[in-house]
Amino acid sequence: MAQPPSQDDTGIDVVHAPQDVWGDLYHELLRAPWWVTLLSIAAAVLAVNVFFAVVFVVTGGIANARHGSFADAFFFSVQTLGTIGYGAMYPQSMAAHLAVTAESIVSLVAIGLSTGLIFTKFAIPVARLEFARNAVIYLQDGVRTLGIRVANRRGNFIVEASVRVTLVRAETTREGLFFYRLYDLPLARDRSNAIGRSWLILHRIDESSPLRGLTPESLRDADLEIQVAITGIDGTTSQTLHGRHRYLPEELKPGMRYADMLSPKPDGRLELDYAKLHDLVPASY
Length: 285
Hints:
The protein is an alpha+beta fold. It is built from 5 helices and 18 strands. It has helices at 25-31, 34-59, 70-81, 94-123, 216-220, and strands at residues 6-7, 13-14, 62-63, 90-91, 129-131, 135-140, 143-152, 158-172, 178-184, 191-195, 198-204, 224-234, 240-247, 252-254, 256-258, 262-264, 270-272, 280-282. A hairpin with a 2-residue loop joins strand 6 (135-140) and strand 7. The two termini are 52 Å apart.
């Protein structure tokens, strides 16, 4: 049976890629949404309890448990695995004692793995960076400029932040080979001591820019994308943060610039309006 395509975080459908979900289950659960991870842990615990419940039904030897009752065996297994021990049911044969011993060992491993997985998942740093839905191209100081706006959704600072912008463009070599070439776009400022609330990333489209000669008409049919990657240190936890975004041709807006997010207040202070993060206004091109 053909393997269904999977989509990676670049939007590319990947087929025939080697997959080893069980061999890399820990990493898969770290990447998975919280509900998937918690559901997987719950399913694993239930599976262990069902297995040992069958063992207790077969071996017997559980005091005060009804003979052949799977329900009693299951709930005794739950008490054993959870180290609860109400005392109403307890092992009274050698086979039952051996089964309880085995389940106790399994419970130690299961609790350790689950605790480590949940702690690691909680400790993974998540950058609350929000990129504007569109990148803009407009004239700034007489030079055509690519602009990308990003906002920090947290109230703290991201210190020692650095940004890289890469152009990925389809090209054909002189030998007729088709491939995607990557160009690093020089930025007016690629580092910031601290990202507070917002950052406007700028690339000047001059004669040395890979974007030179790009027109609104050619942009519509261009096979390219712009990738943005930001790295920094969370000012609260001192953990390294990563944020990335990509823009396709239809998300590049020539002749537009971002609306101002900052505005003065009557008391002389400044107001930053997050609602305007994605707003665009016409500009010279």
